[in-house]
């Protein structure tokens, strides 16, 4: 079942090591079939060089395995929560990419400091609160999803316009219309974090860009009036 | 038309990923035929591995497409402004290379701190002013070119002697007699930015080099008395 | 003798340059046969590209060569001390990987700042005391092992739960049930050090994670209730 | 003439890009035949991929070309001064490797902070004084050599025990018994600079190692009682 989606999710997973976003098996990509309410995700702890499309696991939105011989990613429930809360997204990536993790550990938002950021993220990429003891000790992965959703709700951030988050003390999740696009965003997040880090060491001035720069660059690439790239 | 120039511009574009100056499609190179008043530029948002010389777009100095099926780079008007204002240059590069972008975001000039800098840049590489709301909301790419030209005029910098700029909140543009040379300068800018960053973290002393060192190293490689390299 | 172990130790050594953990010959891996009380270690100062499984040297727990034409690693006695003091470990790695060395030189513990750390290290990775003049001038390599053992004893750290150390003014040692696993841990240590470094530059807040996060993530991957990965 | 030395110097030059020590043509290696008082050096400004052993230029100790169709490296006179002042050295490397250049620009000595340093450098690697206006405007490259020699004399440093220097506002020179060994030292210098940089950002404590650690590690690899590596 879902053979085409499995192929897409497999290929998206395989891009993570090529884009230097993962060490060993520390990352996972999923993609959803919204009509069937099922998503496909990488199996847990399997080396990338041994993966095949047939290894992808099909799970429902409660995280229960519908098809597949292997255990799904241990982060499956986080993906499930995000798919339920963010209805427009089609793919999700989690990785421990070093620059993004550094900001997640430090608890420092990725402020919008330039056009590289604004081309993809229409505003700051937030860091969540740390999970509480109770949230960690029971239903940990589900609560990881919930703290992401809560952060976006409380701060009034549109997950379609800012398709990334840094989970405090943990690392980044990104998403998008497809698994492939979510992987691309994971790479962009990493590059933006690297640029922000060095800019922050160079100056103590407030270097966030104004709203009109965000408007210009984000809508240069997104929405009805986008004019970057080729007509599809 | 301009088949030889298209080939050169194509090859110059393809060097950007090889020199690790671009992520995804974030860069563009152009080259000009001064006699015809036309320049050749990369199409917008096309992946490097799919580019061919025939994809290069020919535009005039108002940025209008003269030949080509694809949209030219969204930054085409910035290139056009620079070609009009800087009459000696034959090629232009824009990239989002991380070290240079970090300085552009921080708003910190690349001060001349050593011979690596002085061999290519005869003085500091300036950061422009940020574009105003009005400059961003209308004719944005053209105004990006204009702020570069204004910066060089106001600060009295010769664009032939300092073939690079950091656009505030955005990133670097470099130029030179040919597209190939402008790409080389884009790489040098990135390396110089990396060296400057670390030097700035190591000391709070003023470590700009004196004018006589700039004179020595710049003219060792440039002008009638240059003695670096082989006779042509 | 010990042909299978030699092959394993050889392969583990060869992973060090692939994982970018060594410059030139600056690293060594060993693996032990607990029944025979003998361990196999890389020869001293031999280039990785010239190594073969037959070059591995067999030594006893006093560091005396039992088989092999080449000198064993100059760090052999450090390995011997660790095998004697830490009875559960099967393999040891020493490398001069740059991020871990930087912390060892600075004398800064690798505090647990996130899940990447907690997945592998159940608490801070300690820096040892500096060796004294006397400890350096006689039986230096043996004393290097002893200062590691003493550090774990004095600070009450379980070497099976924190399989790594930073020797002050020197660099990291890691260990594990097998040589292959110890190499993996050497890479994780390096990545964790990189993440910690950048987090420490981003904030002056205390960003150590609470004990319950360590409990959750460490035991997600280790022990009877681990649920990361596939059933073996 | 000197065909074997040309081959060695050629191979040593070709290792610079492989060891990631040069950008474009920014580096040069030479090797000397002490009996004939002639040295062989890379031609100026030639791309590495186009070099061949026959391109190497033979010059005498006044820097005059004895054989070769190409101009020798513009830094030839610096090499000549060092060969004359340091009678035991057989090869010299100059590169613009980024970590070492950052320290040279900042004017910060590479203090001995650990065993990685002590294995190769028996004490701090010094930064020279900046060249004066007069020293730069006439006989610049010769004066670059002289300021190196003066630095070692004034600070009482033995160039055989500390085979490297950082020329202020410029970058590193390394040397050794052969061109190949000098290249290896250039790489070690770069790695040591990287480690020192990060250690310096992690702590404000004085983290120089004591003399007895230098004694131990330097003489573990050098001199009559060395015991690292294999008997030759």
From TrEMBL, chains A, B, C, D:
Family matches, as PANTHER family: FUCULOSE PHOSPHATE ALDOLASE (PTHR22789), L-RIBULOSE-5-PHOSPHATE 4-EPIMERASE SGBE (PTHR22789:SF8)
Gene Ontology MF, one: aldehyde-lyase activity
InterPro entries given in the database record: Aldolase_class_II_sugar_metab, Aldolase_II/adducin_N, Aldolase_II/adducin_N_sf
Keyword presence, Nucleotide-binding: no
SUPFAM superfamilies: AraD/HMP-PK domain-like
Catalysed reactions, as listed in the record: L-ribulose 5-phosphate = D-xylulose 5-phosphate
Family: Belongs to the aldolase class II family. AraD/FucA subfamily.
Annotated Class II aldolase/adducin N-terminal domain residues: 7-197
Any Pfam family: Aldolase_II
UniProt-listed Enzyme Commission number(s): 5.1.3.4
Entry protein name: L-ribulose-5-phosphate 4-epimerase
Summary of the function given for this chain in its UniProt record: Involved in the degradation of L-arabinose. Catalyzes the interconversion of L-ribulose 5-phosphate (LRu5P) and D-xylulose 5-phosphate (D-Xu5P) via a retroaldol/aldol mechanism (carbon-carbon bond cleavage analogous to a class II aldolase reaction).
High-level lineage: Bacteria, Bacillati, Bacillota, Negativicutes, Veillonellales
Listed pathway(s): Carbohydrate degradation; L-arabinose degradation via L-ribulose; D-xylulose 5-phosphate from L-arabinose (bacterial route): step 3/3
One BP term from GO: arabinose catabolic process
Cofactor annotation: Zn(2+)
Organism per entry: Megasphaera stantonii
UniProt key word Isomerase: yes
GO cellular component assignments: cytosol
Keywords on record: Arabinose catabolism, Carbohydrate metabolism, Isomerase, Metal-binding, Zinc
């Amino acid at each position: 079942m879902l053979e085409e989606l499995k192929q897409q999710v497999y290929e998206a997973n395989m891009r993570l090591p090529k884009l230097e976003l993962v060490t060993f098996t520390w990352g996972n990509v999923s993609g959803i079939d919204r009509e069937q309410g099922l998503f496909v995700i990488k199996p847990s702890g399997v080396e990338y060089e041994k993966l095949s499309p047939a290894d992808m696991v099909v799970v429902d939105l409660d995280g229960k395995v519908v098809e597949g011989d292997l255990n799904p990613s241990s982060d499956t429930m986080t993906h499930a929560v995000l798919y339920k809360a963010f209805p427009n997204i089609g793919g999700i990536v989690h990785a421990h990419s070093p620059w993004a993790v550094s900001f997640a550990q430090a608890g420092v938002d990725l402020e919008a400091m330039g056009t590289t950021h604004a081309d993809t993220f229409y505003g700051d990429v937030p860091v969540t609160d740390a999970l509480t003891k109770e949230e960690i000790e029971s239903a940990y992965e589900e609560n990881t999803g919930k703290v992401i959703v809560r952060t976006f709700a409380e701060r009034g951030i549109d997950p379609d316009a800012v398709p990334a988050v840094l989970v405090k003390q943990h690392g980044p999740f990104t998403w998008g219309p497809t698994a492939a696009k979510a992987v691309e965003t994971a790479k962009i997040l990493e590059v933006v974090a690297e640029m922000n880090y060095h800019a922050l060491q160079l100056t103590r001035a407030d270097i966030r860009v104004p709203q009109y720069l965000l408007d210009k660059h984000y809508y240069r690439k997104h929405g009805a009036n986008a004019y970057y790239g080729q007509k599809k």
